[in-house]
Amino acid sequence: MSRLVNEENKGNGEIHLTSNANQSVMFLQQFIRNPKQVGSVIPSSRFLASKMVQSVPWNDVTTIAELGSGTGAVTRFIQRRVTGSTNVLLFEMDEKMRSDLQANYPSFTCHSNACHLTKMMIEKGIHQLDCVISGLPFFNFKSDLREAILHQITEALKPGGRFIAFQYSLQMKKHLSEKFLIDKIDFVPFNFPPAFVYSCRKKEGM
Fold it and tell me: What's the whole-number mean pLDDT along residues 42-64?
């Protein structure tokens, strides 16, 4: 993003302006504090964010979750595609980023821990999700954390539900193929680091 991000607060008419520099500094600070959970020193590029939402069948989406929302690089593109009746759940561990997300996207609900995805759905009266979008660096996680989150995703998704995730390598391909049908993997060079976008569907019986 090469300009100021102007997000209108639909709840009270306020406008929140966040510069790229501020977003990058915030992201870098989080990376320094917890590099394994962040995975990158800067937010996702608009090219990566755009590719992430292209694989979502938006006409069929009434419930969606984004895991690892960060500074909202992908969230902005999600906001452009959803309708006012779409239930959107955002998950971000960093308290400052989560607070900014809630201010900029008041119609979405923000939560801290993706390991509590299904619990948050129950609290919101959501039975199943049509889609999960993830920016979490799964390969960096300890195996028990990785398995816990992936289990939450498969439990949350409807049969055939979509799972869209970006990773910085193909090291998760075999592991993801055990839990999802991988329709395609797109390479996005215009991102730092370059990224791979996995477009998956929930397997039957999962």
Answer: 93
pTM of the predicted model as reported, rounded to 2 decimal places: 0.82
Question: For 110-206, where are the alpha helices, taking DSSP H only?
Answer: 117-124, 143-156, 173-177
CATH number at residue 147: 3.40.50.150
Encoded tokens for 138: 């799964």
Domain count within the chain: 1
pLDDT: which is higher, 23 or 177: 177
**Burial (0-12, 13-18, 19+ Cβ within 10 Å), 111:** buried
74-114 residue pLDDT tens: 999 999 999 999 999 999 999 999 999 999 999 999 999 99
Round to whole Å and give the CA distance between 121 and 186.
Answer: 30
Q: Please give the residue range of the domain that contains residue 125.
A: 5-202
The gap between the terminal CA atoms of the chain, to the nearest Å, is 38
User: Which helix (H) or strand (E) segment is 198 a member of?
Assistant: strand 195-202
Helix ranges (DSSP H) in the chain: 20-33, 35-38, 46-54, 75-81, 95-104, 117-124, 143-156, 173-177
Q: What's the rounded Cα separation, in Å, for the pair 126 and 138?
A: 25
